[in-house]
Amino acid sequence: MKNPIEILEKLNNTHSLSIEEYELLLNNINPELMQLAANYACDYQKQYYQNKVFIRGLVEFSNYCRNNCLYCGIRRDNKNCERYRLRIEEIIKCANEGYDLGFRTVVLQGGEDFAYSDEDMCHIIREIKKAHPDMVITLSIGERDRASYEAYYQAGAGRFLLRHETANPALYAKLHPKELSWEHRMNCLKDLKDIGYQVGAGFMVQSPGQTNYDLAMDLKFVEEFKPDMCGIGPFISHKDTPFAKENSGTLEMTLFLISLMRLIYPQMLIPATTALGTIDAKGREKGIQAGANVLMPNLSPVSVRKKYSLYDNKICTGEEAAECINCLKGRVNSIGYEIITAPGNRAGFEKRVE
Ligand code: SAH
């Protein structure tokens, strides 16, 4: 068996490993290996994105959810969750404010809230596109029918984020209630890609019961499926969920995985997530230095921010969007990078994004 450094070099050269080789890298995580992976990752980051970091404005428009995922703070059975639902005009207003702040892409995210019909979603998308044809709209609203996904795409949505959560069906079954199926979620991702969306997959790092082999399966999935974006963050417990007492994922493993993903698919969009910023005060900066190239600050009205509580101690729930951007600009500049407001397609993406 080769040593971890040789395997890392193989990954850097071929962008492909076996699941066992990925697992071996994860089992041998140490500061030296992490630094080497980050160095290689930053070479690709510079090649495709220079020192530019894309920003996406996140509008968390509803925390009603029909699902009962065991890890998530807005799960259906959490009676302590104070529910809110932004009105259609409020959602459009958030997008408009984002545009005025310089955002050229907005992410509409929520629980699986079917109070918004397909008509409603299409109306929101059309109104935003009508006012700002150069704004790219991303949806992150969970699993819906293919026909619905097609309708949103026709209405003008160009991207869709749907984390696969884990590439191992057995682990998926431990993290989710019986009525949710790994196969269905994976089929949604395939449909979205097939329809023409730029697609974001993603997974939680060190969720309860997850092994390095499971994470290695996630890396293999990224290698094979090639999502345009892959969002990862540490699992963080939420006090009102069945996983309240579980340990959170680590900064180190999340950073290492970011670097490995940059080597697996050098052009991929990789966000430094809010969850990463929550477990470490400089988590997002460290994420960028490990190879990430996207930040997703919050555009939701401050009055609802704390209520979109997926996990405990989430950061950035107090400031106005404009303050958030200034804070982020300072953070990004402090490490020699620069925020740009362009829509930020994946390098090499050629399909229509309007
Ligand atoms: N309802 C949408 C949006 C989900 S929220 C959907 O189904 O896609 C966005 C992501 O937050 C989830 O995909 C999950 O990976 C992450 N998340 C949820 N609970 C979390 C927790 N406790 N710790 C870390 N990440 C969490």
Distance between the termini: 48 Å
Percent of residues in beta strands? 5-15%
How many separate domains?
Answer: 1
Q: From the helix content, strand content and strand pairing, which structural class follows?
A: alpha/beta
Bulk shape: globular
The poorly predicted ranges are: none
Number of helices: 14
Strand order of the largest sheet: 2-3-4-5-6-7
Could you say which small molecules are bound to this protein? S-adenosyl-L-homocysteine
Q: Largest beta sheet, briefly?
A: 6 strands, parallel
CATH T-level fold name: TIM Barrel
Order of helices and strands: HHHEEHEHEHEHHEHEHHHEHHE
Q: In the CATH classification, which architecture applies?
A: Alpha-Beta Barrel
CATH superfamily: Aldolase class I
Give helix % range. Answer: 40-55%
Task: Describe this protein with a few key phrases.
3-stranded parallel sheet, 14 helices, 354 residues, 6-stranded parallel sheet, globular, binds S-adenosyl-L-homocysteine, TIM Barrel, alpha/beta
Q: What this model shows, in words?
A:
This protein has 14 helices and nine strands. Strand 4 (136-140), helix 6 (146-155) and strand 5 form a beta-alpha-beta unit. The chain has a six-stranded parallel beta sheet. It has a three-stranded parallel beta sheet with strand order 8-1-9, covered by helices on one side. It is of the alpha/beta class and 354 residues long. The longest helix is centred in the first third of the chain and has 19 residues, at 31-49.
